[in-house]
Every structure is written in structure tokens, then in C-alpha cells.
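Researcher: Structure for this, please.
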Amino acid sequence: MNTIYVLPEDELGEGLYRRICLLTKEARGGWDTIGAALGLAGGTLSIALGALLWLVVSLLAPGGLRSFLNVLETAFFALPIPLLALASYCLDLLERRLLAPPPQKESRPAGFEGCRRFRPRLPHQN
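Model: Predicted structure, C-alpha cell format:
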């Protein structure tokens, strides 16, 4: 029980932000890169806008506008959850795609390239 397990380091580096930067730099322009960038930026900006709206509503909003801004504030506080989930999913896809080894081609015997079936379709009618 006194054993300490250490995971091996990978080639992307040790820092979280450096890792995200290297992942998005390798696959520039793909939908997963754009999804990761929009999810991370939108998630953090949504939290900041929600906090700003909370401040405005609590200090400055008149009665009629207050209920609409409360709904908007709640939406901005709830929006980071799906945006950050989208960003983490896209980053996982990027990591799997970039760190996976290239697929090995399956070797076949030289004489069987043109032959599609090796067995008859109806073996009981031989």
C-alpha cells in the first residue's frame, strides 16, 4: 500500500494552458478547434457578463427592467456549463486525434487481392 504511481509525461508539456495552445495550434481551422476556442472564450465571458449584470441589477436597475435583467443574468450564469462542456469535448477530440498513432495497414497474402469471398454463400448446398 506504500507504492506511489507516477504517470509518464507526454510530449505536449506540463502546463494546462500550454497544452491547450499546442493542441489548437496543431489542428488549426478544424471544427473541433473552433468549438474548443468558442467554448472556452464563451464560458469565461459568460461568467464575467453574468457578474456584471448582477451588479447592474442589484444597484441600478429600475423596477420594470429588473425582472428582465434577472432572467438575463441567470441565463448568463447558466450558459458556461454547456459551453465549457463543449470545449472539453472538443479538446478531448483534438487530443485523441493528434496523439493517436497512425493506423497500421493490415497485411494480406499476395494472391488474394481480387478474391472477395473465400467460402460459398450457401455451404449446405455443396
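Researcher: Any notable elements?
Model: The CA atoms of residues 97 and 104 lie 15 Å apart. The first helix runs from residue 16 to 26.
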